[in-house]
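User: For a benchmark we're assembling, each entry needs the component sequences followed by a predicted structure for the full assembly. Here are entry 17's components. Please fill in the structure.
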Amino acid sequence: MAYSYNELWQMLGQATDLPYGPGQVAALEQVLRHTDAAGETELAFQTRMILTQSYVMSGEPAKSFVTFSRCLAEYDADPGLDHHEAWSWELLWYFKFAVSGLLKFPEVPLDRTYAVLDDMERRYREAGEKTQAVYHYRHLVARHIGDDDAAARWYERWVTAPRDDLSDCAGCDPDSRMAYLATTGRDAEAIAVGEAALAQKLDCEKQPQSVLGALMFPYLRTGRSDEAADAFRRSYRGAKDKLGEMGAVADHIEFCARTGNEHRGLELLERHLSWLPKAPSPAAVMSFTASGGLLLRRLTELGHGDAPVRRGEETVPAAELAAEMSRTSRELGTRFDARNGTPARSAAVERVLTAEPYTTRAISLNER
Amino acid sequence: MRNTFQVDLRGIVDLLSHHLYASPRVYVRELLQNAVDAITAVGADHAGRVRITTTDDLIRVVDNGIGLTEAQVHELLATIGRSSKRDELGFARHEFLGQFGIGLLSCFLVADEIRVHTQQAGQPAVRWIGFSDGRYEVRPAEDREPGTEVTLLPRRGTDEFRTHDTVVHLATLYGSLLPVEVTVDDRRTTTGTLPWAGSRADMLRYGAETLGFTPFDVIPLSVPEAGLSGAAFVLPTPANPATRGGHRVYLKRMLLAESVDELLPEWAFFVRCVVDSTELRPTASREALYDDSLLADTRDAIADQLRGWLVRLATVDPGRLGDFLRVHHLGVKALALHDDEMLRLVEQWLPMETNAGRATLAELRERHGVVRYVDDVDQFRQLAAVAAAQDMVLVNAGYAYDTDILSRLPGVQRMDPSDLATRFESVERDAELALRPFLAAAQRRLDRLGCEVLLRAFEPSRLPALYLVSRSAAFGRELSATRDKVDDLWADVLGAVAAAVPVDRPQLVLNHNNPLVRRICGLADPELAGLAVDALYGQALLLGYHPIRPADADLLNSSFLGLLGHAVEGGA
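Assistant: Structure for entry 17:
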């Protein structure tokens, strides 16, 4: 079945307009099969570029490495082609997807991620010394492997560098800062950064729910529980239908487990258990099973270890699933640590699994 | 007394005109707002009126509001003098005087000189004259009735904004719903009533006149915590989900904007709303809504009311719901992506394309138990007939949103093409073993195309072979093609990814029920058998609407010519 250039172009346009998710991915893959078969290299390049972002946002980052590296190779072979030049900014932007994506797969050696970071830096510098995002992503890698000194150093470089058109958006950049501030005990600062971000008009697929998600725990720890509950509700609403946000949903489950809302947490866990077999990455599975392990441990401690949890067609007792999820998260932590040569991921998993409630009294999550 | 602003007034005017407002035309709204605020300050039963007169060389706005004292005039100027940034202007607006002052200064968008003559009951009258270069004067003035008169002396190059017609148009646009009497050159521009306060017929007429379409239906809206009332007008024709049309929002009965899109969730592109709110906050420019949690709650409340309308329609008037869905199925599907109630509505009422005709998901589930779907139109074409022959109902989910909706439903399975082969019967053991040499040769032949050969027995028997590409096979093919093209760094990465993600190969399933296939399996001439396998492969690609890659085209070509050669020799 052969389509004309115009038909393919139109199909690509329609697929691009769809929301991120399995439907868009299927539609774009269909276009790609036909553009490849028809030898329409220019359309195929554009389709792979659009697919790269769609894979990331739809929760299939592993596939984005394939389309991205293909586009990169084609671009490098002849950067001057019109359709290459037209997409050169996006190509640079996608390096950020690549770096954060590669970290999430323990199968990918760390030195490959550093090599991609170096390539990213070279290209960002060539594009006009646009290093803000480079420092940001170097910081993320340092944070991931638990190199605290390097993380602090890169953080400083990152937040003092001028913003440019390759910086993460006005919501995502502060969002990422907040995560660091919150894990280093700087909750007040995290809140200030987050509230400043929310005061702006954010136009991003991930926002404002991601900034709100990053505010939940700092609010909670500084005694602002109403605002924490509000942030929980609004950020969960924005994340609950997106497989790509599985890590965020893990945070929501942890939030429930630590605010006396174990029953609500169980509702979330059940709703999202079906995501596990199609999880975006091992890192997402690790976060999700750690939060799930914590929640189910809490339920067991509260005397509900035999509460039935629905998983597809079967039902598992909470205590049994607690053991299973804890085991999975620990195994993944160990695999990441083996890759990284540091104990950071296991330690992070352990912190979640053994976490205790922040509050003695339950916080109401109901709408006011 | 002569005074000068503490900050450069030109700077403020510049800030207003270039950074705050989209167009100088807002000066009419600002003057009306000032007048209405002053009238409101007198008391609830005060019969307010605002008279605007336009002449060639001035515009005059007179209200019977509370008026200002001399101290207030000084204070308001100081308030805005402190505001040098957009955010501070927004903040200053929270107070009556700040609001008044910013509203006044916006007049410099169209005026070089502004004269204000004002008097509060029991206080001396004041005259204030401001110039756009930063000077102003405040002095005692002759008595007048309590209230304020603002006179604008034109700024060159802005004539179009001050004509009678433009001012009538703008006063009507912004202020037609205001609870006071507004006239422009003695022509009344206020209607005094809210359009949704009238009968259904009135609302339908309002829709046609103001929004430009005769609505399919009108849904009343009410959100008490936002002091919001209004109506949602359902579009009679399909709306494009990508172009999210805006909504007409009034704040305290003054028009904020004609196309506010933050008021409704994205999926609500099948309605246009007209609402008035007393509690929602405008941004500093008064051209959009401030995105706070009250707006978020309001958005949710309106969404609930739209959903409620749909659900009610489904119970009381399914026929009309059918009419609605024929026009707005895309909108409802978009909604079903995030909303469980809409998901059930789609399941119950929206017919889907299947290989057994059109049917709703609920019907399919009742008849067949499990519902299976494929996620693109090509796959549907490839598999519809074969699946039907296996008594398998297949939904074509290749249209916008279908895949995402179906993946949200329990008991619905995405069918991977390779699942189909698992439903075919195996060939009897001894028969298949006897065919091993042929199958091995066929496999060697198709290895270069990255394809796996299987032998199965399935219906329809007229179909000699079926070519199936699973998702992971498609990914595997893309992965291996890419590994050959990228540099070492990425080849390493892709190698690691390949180890992490399961990858399989496309399958060519030969049909043992097909007489021709049986004869090909028994061919003694290995070359002829090879050509026949190539031809079966090519035919399966064509029959299944698969894309033909250059390598496939070469193979089709060579097998055709080879078979032709054999036919000619055999005939000779």
